[in-house]
Structures are given as structure tokens and as C-alpha cells.
């Protein structure tokens, strides 16, 4: 027989006490959200007749996730990052801010402070011998098709094994991470290597959760972008390379039809020479359209904890320059 106690006055009173409603201190919004969250969980325990064993194994899993800083990894896997994007899309639509390249999730692997270049940058350190040469280029335009010169294009991606510098300590500092300012025609170009998809480490707490749901933890090959320019809405997006087995089966739900881009292989001697490359390459073209806005808060990326971000904030404040 399953017991149901959630709706009793005793439990309802208990919840108001636990959420601090009878205390003067604390934060009102936190109390409201906590009360709702705890109520939903208490009700769930009743409805699913959760056993003590199940409850404590969940606590153990949360401890494991936290101790390995994996909530930022589980969050996209459980669709929260994409859900927040869906909400931002709806907020933009409601405010009639239409047009522009679609946003998609940032993911947990950005590192602030990558080297900056104008027009062109080489992103790889030449150490990844399995990496196929990539020529990545595009133009940043506004919604009327005018090129945006001096736009800040931050790009980061994985190596041929799906690993990101900083998090993968075998890679050199800022490998495969660069900031490129667009030239007078709004163009940016990078020489780099074709990335491989990222996979959640086998056996990690996030993998345990995904496996319990019968899911995998694989992402397709992809390239991340932050694009910003004064007077334009900051864009967080990424492109997924066409043809990857996971292009439309991304565990982090970042793929959007408009952001799937092919890599064009070339062995043409004239094309190789004009790019000053030493052999065959794969060209990836990604043009970006930025929506206009006068609102300063929409011209910068939202706040969240990011690797090295605080150091960069301090450095730019010391230099007296505002980071866009
Ligand atoms: C990534 O961008 O590589 C990523 C995104 C979400 C979870 C894990 C990795
Ligand atoms: Fe990524």
C-alpha cells in the first residue's frame, strides 16, 4: 500500500518552515523558488513511492556530480541550456526582435582571454598530427545585408580527439581558441583543424545519468562562436559539421537546421597556394547575421561563471577598456 501525505496540513506547514517563510532574513525570491522546488520534489516522492534506497543513491549521485564539477555538463544533457534558448527566442519574438543568425547553447567549455587578431588567425598549434587542415571563413552582416567591420568573433573548438584546451591539459594554452576582429568588409578567416565531436567521459556521473535514460553522451563535430559589435545583439551560437553521425543526434540538443554547415574538401593546387597552405584542406564557410539593438545589455553575453572570465574582467578594467 502506498501512503500519500503530501497534501496533509502537517506537510504543508513543514514546507513553509523549511523554505524560511516564517523568517525575516534571507531572500524572498529564493524562498519562493525553494518552496516550489521542494514541494514538487516532496510530491514526487509521494507519487512515485520513492524508497529510502533510491533517495540516498540520488544524493550520492548529486555528490559525485558536484565533486567532479559536472552540473555544467549534465545541464545541457538534460536540455536546460536548450530550454533557456527557447525562452530567449520567445522573448525576442515577443519584443519583435526578429532576424539574425539563430542562437544555440554556449556549453561549459569556453575560456576567456584567447589571443586576438585582426581579419585572420591561425588557431591550432600544429601539434595535432591527426587534424585535417580547416579553412574557416565568413562575413558578419547586419539584417539589411551591410557588412559589419570590426565585429568581435570569438571562436573555440575541440581537437581531433574531441578535447578542448585548458580542460585537456595535454594541449597548449589557448590552442583552438581565438578572437578575430572582422576586416573592413566584415570578413573573418581562421586556419585551424577540423574538430571531432565531444563525448561525455565513459563512467562519469553525467554518463551514469544518461545511461539510466537509455541515452548516449555524444556531440557532433562543432565550432563555437560568440559574435558581438556595438549596436548589435550579442550572438552565442555554434555550427555543426554536416555528415557527422551525431549531427542530428546531439546529446546537448544544440543542433539547429540553419547551423549545419558542410566542409568542402579541396586538393586544388591554386586554392592551396592562394591560402598559403601546404596541402589539401577542408573549407567551412559560416556567414553571420547580427540583429540590431540599442539596448546595451543585449550587446554583451549574459553573465555566468566562465573559465578565466574574472581575470579578464579585472584586466580590462585595469586597462580602462570595456569588454564587448
Ligand atoms: C561542447 O560544447 O563541447 C559541450 C556542450 C555541452 C556539454 C558538453 C560539451
Ligand atoms: Fe563544444
Q: Could you describe the 3D structure shown?
A:
Helices cover 28% and strands 19% of the residues. The protein has 324 residues and is of the alpha/beta class. The protein has a six-stranded mixed sheet with strand order 1-5-4-7-8-9, with no helix packed on it. The chain is globular, with a radius of gyration of 23 Å. It contains eight helices and twelve strands. The model is unreliable at 317-324 (pLDDT under 50). The structure holds benzoic acid and fe (iii) ion.
Note the topology.
Elements: H1 9-18, H2 28-47, H3 52-67, H4 71-77, H5 80-94, E1 116-118, E2 120-122, E3 133-142, E4 152-157, E5 177-181, E6 187-193, H6 205-212, E7 222-228, E8 235-241, E9 260-261, E10 264-266, H7 269-274, E11 281-285, E12 288-290, H8 309-318
Parallel strand pairs: 1-5, 2-6, 3-11, 3-12, 8-9
Antiparallel strand pairs: 3-6, 4-5, 4-7, 7-8, 10-11
The structure holds benzoic acid and fe (iii) ion.
The site of fe (iii) ion (FE) has 5 residues, from strand 7.
What are the salient characteristics of this protein?
28% helix; 324 residues; binds benzoic acid; disordered C terminus
Distance between the termini: 60 Å
Strand content: 15-25%
- Specify the structural class: alpha/beta
What shape does the CA trace take? globular
* DSSP strand count: 12
Level of helix content? Answer: 25-40%
Q: Order of helices and strands, N to C?
A: HHHHHEEEEEEHEEEEHEEH
| Low-pLDDT stretches | 317-324
Task: Give a quick account of the main beta sheet: strands, pairing sense, barrel closure.
Answer: 6 strands, mixed
Gyration radius, in Å = 23 Å
Bound molecules: benzoic acid, fe (iii) ion
Strand order of the largest sheet: 1-5-4-7-8-9
**What is the overall pLDDT average?**
95
By DSSP (H or I, 4+ residues per run), the number of helices equals: 8
Amino acid at each position: 500500500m502506498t501512503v500519500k501525505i503530501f497534501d496533509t496540513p502537517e506537510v504543508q506547514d513543514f514546507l513553509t518552515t523549511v523554505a524560511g517563510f516564517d523568517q525575516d532574513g534571507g531572500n524572498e525570491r529564493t524562498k519562493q523558488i525553494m518552496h516550489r522546488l521542494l514541494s514538487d520534489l516532496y510530491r514526487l516522492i509521494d507519487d512515485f513511492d520513492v524508497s529510502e534506497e533510491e533517495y540516498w543513491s540520488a544524493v550520492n549521485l548529486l555528490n559525485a556530480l558536484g565533486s567532479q564539477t559536472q552540473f555544467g555538463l549534465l545541464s545541457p544533457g538534460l536540455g536546460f541550456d536548450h530550454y533557456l534558448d527557447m525562452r530567449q527566442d520567445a522573448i525576442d519574438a515577443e519584443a519583435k526582435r526578429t532576424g539574425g543568425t539563430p542562437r544555440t547553447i554556449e556549453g561549459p567549455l569556453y575560456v576567456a582571454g584567447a589571443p586576438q587578431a585582426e581579419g585572420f588567425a591561425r588557431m591550432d598549434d600544429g601539434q595535432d598530427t591527426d587534424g585535417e587542415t580547416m579553412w574557416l571563413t565568413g562575413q558578419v552582416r547586419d539584417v539589411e545585408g551591410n557588412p559589419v567591420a570590426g565585429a568581435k568573433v570569438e571562436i573555440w573548438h575541440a581537437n581531433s580527439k574531441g578535447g578542448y584546451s585548458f580542460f585537456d591539459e595535454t594541449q597548449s594554452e589557448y590552442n583552438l581558441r581565438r578572437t578575430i576582429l572582422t576586416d573592413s568588409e566584415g570578413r573573418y578567416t581562421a586556419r585551424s583543424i577540423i574538430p571531432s565531436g565531444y563525448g561525455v567521459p565513459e563512467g562519469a556521473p553525467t554518463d551514469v545519468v544518461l545511461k539510466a535514460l537509455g541515452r548516449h553522451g555524444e556531440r557532433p563535430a562543432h565550432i563555437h562562436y560568440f559574435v558581438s559589435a556595438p549596436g548589435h545583439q550579442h550572438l552565442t551560437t555554434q555550427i555543426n559539421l554536416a555528415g557527422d553521425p551525431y549531427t542530428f543526434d546531439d546529446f546537448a540538443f544544440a543542433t539547429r537546421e540553419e547551423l549545419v554547415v558542410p566542409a568542402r574538401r579541396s586538393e586544388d593546387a591554386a586554392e592551396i597556394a592562394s591560402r598559403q597552405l601546404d596541402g589539401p584542406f577542408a573549407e567551412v564557410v559560416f556567414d553571420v547575421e547580427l540583429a540590431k539593438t540599442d539596448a546595451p545589455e543585449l550587446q554583451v553575453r549574459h553573465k555566468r561563471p566562465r573559465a578565466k572570465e574574472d581575470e579578464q574582467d579585472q584586466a580590462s578594467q585595469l586597462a580602462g577598456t570595456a569588454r564587448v
